[in-house]
Design brief:
Transcriptional regulator (chains A, B); globular; 2 domains; transcription regulation (chains A, B); GAF-like_dom_sf (chains A, B); Arc Repressor Mutant, subunit A; DNA binding (chains A, B); WH_DNA-bd_sf (chains A, B); homodimer
């Protein structure tokens, strides 16, 4: 199976799928081959197989994009099939009260993985997307996950470079540790223009049956508005309801539910 | 690349992913091999590659499931990335007015493909799921898509066996044709316990720049309630807004956006 360069055809085909991301949702064959450091002929043959199966599609501009069939199959994974389905009705209740962006997230490796998002026309436009990843130290849902993680995980996280998303992002490890302690003291996380200028957020942890943080629930508003704390009682109430259903459905995120180990750095 | 039996390793690996469906979201290695008519040793080797990349994961019961990474990549396909993002805020407005299940669907082959769904605690529980397929003749969004399809497509659809979902499903081709004509006359589709006992629905077509049906928008309510027509003005208003944004974003579903040809029968 392994070829001259030690990679199998299957892992090379998967690499082609992994070449797409939110900044590169469509790619030409040449771009695909270049991004995967693969000879054009190899890329051509593997892309044809992926296209025949429906994993890739070609659009009207003859560029490749991820196929509808892969979306359908991806929705069978536990995060959308279980966690997302459980959280959405409670998020809907929060949305109706607040008319703001509502997020439900889990930790995957060192990232905040957005499991579900509700938004409307009155909510402030934000960059989060379902299935997208953002840092943990710059987002409300991320800080809620990080503040309640194990001390060992917090130490590892703070020892890594902290990406600066805006001039308000906390990028000093000592300051981040104090911020996480303050988050635990008050019971909820806050951000103020730390991910995106003009937006601030509030988020609470969702605990599993063993009182470990399993997910987080948050809300993003326009930064000129005040008193994010007023949303906390509703967030906590819905987080408790989500936690209850997750326990009933045995949606314990560790192990195997989301990745406890970082993937790809 | 092609092996003794004429199938490449890549297409066999893809077959393993295709073995999962909503009724089989987790499978053992033995079940996977059986569903793909593949020797256990071959399945074992390919599953290991899929797992290493993150396309498959093993859960606490040692059963395989679709991996989070495949969900993330599937979300890059145009249906969720573009259509779903466009439709959701308008669906949110409809949900707030009705508190009922809201659906946005496209035609893919001979199926209704559910692109987006909004639901809450007050809405009646229904079987639709995002990324799921249901027949066109038994669902409101499906009938709205079918009624406005080309005569050629309607002929082909009516010539195929019409699956009976409940005792109320229209399974006689002649009756279905009359129902589709009535749908066009009144400008919206209705179902009454044709997909699920206890539910009825109303849906309207969403037209593209060439006045072809591109999608449909519908609402599912509990069957005891009356006067589904009361929802039509709001549905039509939101459908028109979605159509406008789709045209602005060049979200023309044919060709290459969804499949005009049936896939896998």
């Amino acid at each position: 199976m392994a070829q001259g360069n030690g990679r199998s055809a299957t892992s090379r085909a998967l690499d082609l799928l992994g070449a797409f991301d939110i900044r590169h949702p469509t790619l030409t064959l040449t771009e695909l081959a270049a991004r995967c450091a693969m000879p054009l002929a190899t890329a051509h043959r593997l892309v044809a197989e992926l296209e025949a199966w429906g994993a890739l599609e070609r659009n009207a501009d003859n560029r490749y994009q991820i196929g509808t069939r892969l979306w359908e199959i991806g929705l069978l994974s536990p995060v959308p099939r279980r966690l997302r389905e459980i959280a959405l009705p409670f998020m809907q209740d929060l949305y109706e009260k607040s008319k703001e962006n509502i997020h439900f997230a889990v930790r995957d490796g060192h990232d905040t993985l957005y499991v579900a998002k509700l938004t409307g026309h009155r909510a402030v436009p934000i960059i989060s997307r379902e299935g997208n990843r953002l840092p943990m130290h710059s987002t409300g849902v991320g800080k809620a996950l990080l503040a309640y993680a194990s001390q060992e995980f917090i130490d590892t996280y703070c020892a890594r470079p902290l990406v600066r998303c805006t001039r308000h992002t906390i990028v000093e490890p000592g300051r981040l540790r104090r911020e996480l302690a303050a988050t635990r003291d008050r019971g909820y996380a806050l951000t103020s223009e730390e991910m995106t200028l003009g937006s601030c957020s509030v988020a609470v942890p969702v605990f599993d049956a063993r009182d470990q943080v399993a997910a987080s629930l948050g809300l993003v508003v326009h930064s000129v508005r005040e008193n994010l704390a007023k949303y906390v009682p509703d967030l906590k109430a819905e987080a408790a309801k989500i936690a209850k259903v997750m326990v009933e459905h045995r949606c314990d995120p560790y192990p195997g539910f989301v990745h406890d180990l970082p993937r790809g750095g």
